[in-house]
Amino acid sequence: MRILHTSDWHVGRTLHGVSLQHAHERWFDHLVDVVREEAVDAVLVSGDVYDRAVPPVESVKLLSDALGRLCARTRVIVTPGNHDSATRLGFGSALWTDALVVRAGVGDVGRPVPVGDGLVYPLPYLDPDMTRQELADDAGAPLARSHQAVLTAAMDRVRADLAQRRRASRHRVPAAVMAHAFVAGGAESESERDIRVGGVSAVPAEVFGDEVDYVALGHLHGPQTVRGRTLARYAGSPVAFSFSECGHRKSAVVVDLAAGRAPRVEEVAAPVVRRLRHGRGPLDHLLSGRYDHWASDWCKFEVTDPHRPAHMRERLLERFPHAVVTLHTPDADVRPLSAVRVTAASDPFEVLDSFVSAVTGSEPTPTESVALRSAYESACSARRSA
User: Fold this and answer.
1) What is the DSSP string of 99-115?
2) What is the C-alpha to C-alpha distance for residues 344 and 330, in angstroms, rounded to an integer?
């Protein structure tokens, strides 16, 4: 069987308030092309389809269109992640055509989807507090309140079903598992939501055992392999969602699984609408011309001048129109401002002058002093006449 492993689409996500709609549209166009060119038997989406439990209307429309185009060419198997509402994502799934399979309920854990000559076992995101009762064994023994406990119980169901099917067919049927979890050893970024329960967020890779041939992971946004007894990979997100992902090479994964052969994996690079850039230094350095090739990229700038330059953000945006983050972060050797005690006896004009000096690093100019005094006197006059 040949599968295309993806995850963490996060449809509806923004980058510091900037819509990523166009980036997602490019991603879906790319997926359709890959499905056609690679002749995959199924596309796997291992959770976090939407960015939030109640997605905006335009996100629902975008996903509906994308799934329609993909299902016209191959089967698509979807599971919810920790960002999704399993109930909303799985609504009506029992009525859908065979081309689209959404496994959102715990009751489906251990029930495979036939793909080519193999099997795919979809596991939805398993929140320990929501699923440990339902995943308890027949004796009713309660599961521990941990990700490891619920995922181990889910994999026990998978192993039992897979063993029965392999005995019946008398050969090692290729099998893959879809799981949305933080597996120990994976590299995080700033854009994943914390799933810690009982102070622990990670599960050991050993919970997947070696009975299956491939584990299609979702949750971490950087493409990577995690060490375990079987091949387990994070496909990663198709788009960068934070500047901690500047170094990521976004991709999907084409995986070939066959009885008696090791899995064959090929990364397929995702399209890049805009690159992410992170610059730090004095404002004059950032505007010196050496960064002008960043003009069409999404940029984050940290300006390190001892005092905030006048019109800092405006000057950066003039040169870099897609600068979505502009921060004034003076170098560490700049001493923090000291607190000044202001009482009813303090001279208000001295307080105003000291504030300007603290913020700008210099005394107010005569023009600024006149403006400050005029504003103060107007405020006092308005208060007296109120």
Assistant:
1) TEEE--SGGGTT--EEE
2) 33
